[in-house]
Amino acid sequence: MDATLSAGRAGPVPGSPRAVAQAGGLHPFGVFILLAGAFLPIMDFFITNVALPSIDASLHASASSLELVIAGYGVAYAALLVLGGRLGDRYGRHRMFLGALAGFVLVSLSCGLAPTVEVLIGARIVQGATAALLIPQVLATFHHALEGERKARAVALYGATSGIAAVVGQLVGGLLVSADIAGTSWRPIFLVNVPIGVVVLLVAARIVPDTRSSRPVGVDLPGTVLFAATLTALLVPLAEGHSLGWPWWTWAMFALAVVLGAVTVVVERRAERRGEIPLLPPSLLRLPSMSRGLLMVLAFSIGFGAFMFVFALTVQNGLHEDALHGGLAILPMALLFFAGSLLAPRLITRFGRAALSIGAVVQLAGLALLVAVIVQAWPHVSLWATAVPLALAGAGQSMLFAGLFRSVLADVPAHLSGIGSGVLITLQQSGLALGVAALGSLYLALEPHSVPHAFAAVEYVQMAIIALLAVGAVALPRFAQASADAPVIDG
């Protein structure tokens, strides 16, 4: 017994997660814990989609307010993502991960208890900010605590996690809203983050190693503020304009967004000429893979964000299905997206850019078939009839998702890969938020006249985007052999 006590005082068991962390490494269980921490904020962008009718009924929210519940989260997330990575570099990723996760849990509690839609929107914006501080620490820890095949596998798992979280979010949201736990309706979709987050927080505090950059990059505060202001100036009129009849101030904000965007470009160029590394480095954006790939990622994300938003509303508001069936309806897409994510790296390595074009064609076929089913069979649309189209769309978009992310960093020097991937995910999140605001507004404007045609109008735009991506894939750089140094936010 004394020997046992002495062994306990001597320190953690060799090879245990805690011992590996103290040695500066990352145990496989630590990888799982970090992925669990990342899963929550990624899922939370989408989990509200199936809860929107319940939020509307409970808080008497306008359609534009419901858009802001989703898009406000996305803009805060996108605008502060690179800042989060740089703070982790400077002050320690372990500390930033724990602090951001604690903040995310507390703000999730605030979202779940929000008495009005205005409070909910404000809490969602803060929630997006905490997510932006949390996510970069996961990828950067993988990059600095793992090597070789373990690093490549961890980053691949992150990619699969981030993709599947989008569709799982709507499924989980539907389950929780339909359960109506203790008459709380939509509130558990946020409250569920509290117990899960606390468990991840306690475990991560013991087994995740502390890493930081030996050469941390300065925080580009002017660039961050200007970029956030530009996104906000675009988002607010897109979300509010249609419900208010497009008053003069909405057009003034669009003009302001153009001015702010131009000022952002000037400020970022001057910062780079002074030898600083700005939020959106102009020299990096001029690289062929970045200039072409980022535009395609932005377009893809706009379509994807809009689809998840309008499909949930079509199923619930149009077909009058409950939140559970609204979540289950997306399951075929989730399953094929997950399976496609596992196969995509091998197919892309073998077939190169052609794999992206094939994926785009498959997704295009799925979306076209889905529109045909909804328009022709309305209002007697069986959710079983949407399963095959959604499965095709999920399989195709998984190939595009993986290929576009891989191609963007093809020309980026290894020492700038962290900054490049930070820009990449910033543009992805911006696209998701803008898709909800822009194409979501189009849907809400047409919905009172005809739900199926409102859905079709949005999907025609998305299909046009996918068709352009199918053709544009040939303009991307040729794929090199996959390496262990996969994209990370380490900037």
Q: TL;DR?
A:
The protein is mainly α and 491 residues long. It has 20 helices and no strands. 78% of the residues lie in helices and 0% in strands.
* Overall radius of gyration: 22 Å
Number of helices: 20
Q: CATH homologous superfamily of the largest domain - what is it?
A: MFS general substrate transporter like domains
Q: What is the annotated CATH architecture of the largest domain?
A: Up-down Bundle
Largest sheet: none
* Relative helix content: over 70%
The secondary-structure element order is: HHHHHHHHHHHHHHHHHHHH
Poorly predicted segments = 1-9, 481-491
The top level CATH class name of the largest domain:
Mainly Alpha
Oligomeric grouping of the chains: single chain
The computed structural class is mainly alpha
Notes on the protein architecture:
With 491 residues, the chain is an all-alpha fold. Helices cover 78% and strands 0% of the residues. It folds into 3 domains: 19-220, Growth Hormone, Chain: A (Up-down Bundle); 222-276; 278-480, MFS general substrate transporter like domains (Growth Hormone, Chain: A), CATH 1.20.1250.20. The N and C termini lie far apart (50 Å).
Please specify the SSE layout and strand pairing:
Blueprint (H helix, E strand, L loop, with lengths): L1 H9 L6 H6 L5 H19 L5 H8 L3 H29 L1 H20 L4 H29 L2 H32 L8 H4 L1 H15 L13 H24 L3 H26 L8 H4 L2 H31 L4 H6 L2 H21 L1 H25 L9 H22 L8 H30 L4 H22 L19
Helix pairs in contact: 3-7, 3-8, 3-10, 5-6, 5-7, 5-11, 5-19, 6-7, 6-10, 7-8, 8-16, 11-12, 11-19, 14-18, 14-19, 14-20, 16-17, 16-18, 17-18, 17-20, 19-20
